[in-house]
Amino acid sequence: MNLILLRPDELAAIGAGSYRAVLADRRLAHLREVLRASVGDSVGVGVEGGELGRATIVALDEQTATLELRLGEPPPPALDVTLVLALPRPPTLRKVLQQATALGVKRFVLFRAERVEKSYFSSHGLHAHALAEDLRLGLEQARDTIVPTVEIHPEHFGRFVRERLPALSEGGTPLVAHPGATTPCPRAPIGPATLIVGPEGGFIPAEVAMLMQVAQAIDLGPRILRVETAVVALLARLAP
Amino acid sequence: MNLILLRPDELAAIGAGSYRAVLADRRLAHLREVLRASVGDSVGVGVEGGELGRATIVALDEQTATLELRLGEPPPPALDVTLVLALPRPPTLRKVLQQATALGVKRFVLFRAERVEKSYFSSHGLHAHALAEDLRLGLEQARDTIVPTVEIHPEHFGRFVRERLPALSEGGTPLVAHPGATTPCPRAPIGPATLIVGPEGGFIPAEVAMLMQVAQAIDLGPRILRVETAVVALLARLAP
Predict the structure, then answer these.
(1) Where does the record place the Ribosomal RNA small subunit methyltransferase E methyltransferase domain (chains A, B) (predicted)?
(2) What is the CATH number of domain B79-238?
């Protein structure tokens, strides 16, 4: 946690551009146990959807921490890549959401493919509070405040590609990560992009054929990577 | 596991270029439980330090699997980056070893820094069998056979930089990942490189000052990343 992330409703104005916030949850535990902070210490803060700033701890005990803060710094630029991901198993989803959020992704779209287990769509990891937790961990890591969106599309793959993907691809160059593609992943920002990443076992041939009609296939060379490794590697190449 | 990795001493020659191998460990469990393989199925194999090939399962029961195989394909090219890493906490070390091995790193050097907890050097994760397991998982993932080396340097940081780093840097352009460096990480292979990555909390200023004298500082932009994310992102940029 490189940033204490506050909700706008936690801020009470106490003067021109100054606010007070009182924490009693895991952010308190983080201040006490990880940062070993004391009254008078300064910590980095940010407001969800808003600016970054610095806070001074004005009171701290086992129940609460009281911060006085000033904002004014913009969050880092977003990475203009929509990540369209075959829903991975829950631990992989957590890693991808946290890491891709840290890298600046602001829109996640989760879809079904032949090699996605149906049970993944009823996993606790897809509950709103679990998703919010993973996104928040990514934001706190990268000192960002802009919470990404996560869309879940459990319909059949064919329907997803026909009915949803065209609108998603209007948002940016559609790329599909496919080991064995002859075009390497770009090594520089290409403007807005929609990056499609398949399941751990890969797309089946019929799925590849459908995707090739709507997206440019790219790869990272001859090495087969885990989904969480491939996503970070692809985003690192496309990042400014 | 995209490859059944065999040790050379497991191969028994049965004809010109053909070998037999009998498995009874987790590779057997993988064949039975993950691949749900049957007699007659073909699986990808490789020999540690050697070639890739295909095997046919000629016998399979609860105790053993017998494979007959032919080799002949070279493993994928190595990534010519020596990863010089401040020893991270054990779960992070595992992720880095597995992912960087999958990306093709062949030499890891683990060192001490001010923000490395001393206890990490006595972790079970540094035992030879634990390291070998992580490297093997990375090789099996990426269908590679060349086992990386891992060197552990528990001496003080200053001594490491003075006495060890010069020889390591002779092997390739020395780069140190340092958030806030004004030079971005290269976006293409730069030939052999020695990539130095600090601990989760960063190098302390005195350490940065020493490293700046012997290596080029590079960064990945304003976002602070976890060690495992940063390593994958850096390697993805430097990879061919």
Answers:
(1) 78-238
(2) 3.40.1280.10
